[in-house]
Amino acid sequence: MILPSYRLLPRILRWFRRFRQRRGYGVHSPFAFEWITDVVYLQKAQYYAYAPLAEQHEAWQGVLSVKDARLLFRIANHQRAQRMLVVGQGIEREIHYLQAARPSAQIVHLPDASSVERHFPPKPRQSSPLTLCCGWQPKALRCPSSPTCAQG
User: What is the rounded distance in angstroms from the CA atom of residue 65 to the CA atom of residue 16?
Assistant: First the structure.
C-alpha cells in the first residue's frame, strides 16, 4: 500500500527525528536502558532453550506467538524470578516458557481471578511472596503488592 504524498512526508520526517532514540538510546535511567536493550530488543540472541521450545510451540495450548513467548522467557530470565504467578486457562505454552527460563522457580498456576482472591486473601503484607506475576486477567484485579507485576 502506497500512502499519498501528503501523509508520507510527515512519516519520513518523524522517522528521522526518532532515529537516534530508537531501541533505548536516549533513555536516561540506567535500569530502563538495560531493560530496553537487554530484554525487550534482544531478539536475535539464541538462548539455550529456544530450539527445544520452538519444536513444541504449536503442540502446546496458549495465546502468545513465538516472538511474545520468547519475550516472556527473557523477562523471567532477567528478573531471576524464584516464584511466579500465572493466571488464566489454556496457557500451557506460557508455563513451559517460564519453566524453561527459570527451572528452579516455583510456578503457581491459577485458573481465574476468583481463585487468585482465594489463594491470596486481601491482608496487609510486608513483602510479597512472588517475584514475577503475569497473566491475562481484568485490570481491576491487582497482584499482591509485587513491584514487578506485569499485568495484561
Answer: 30
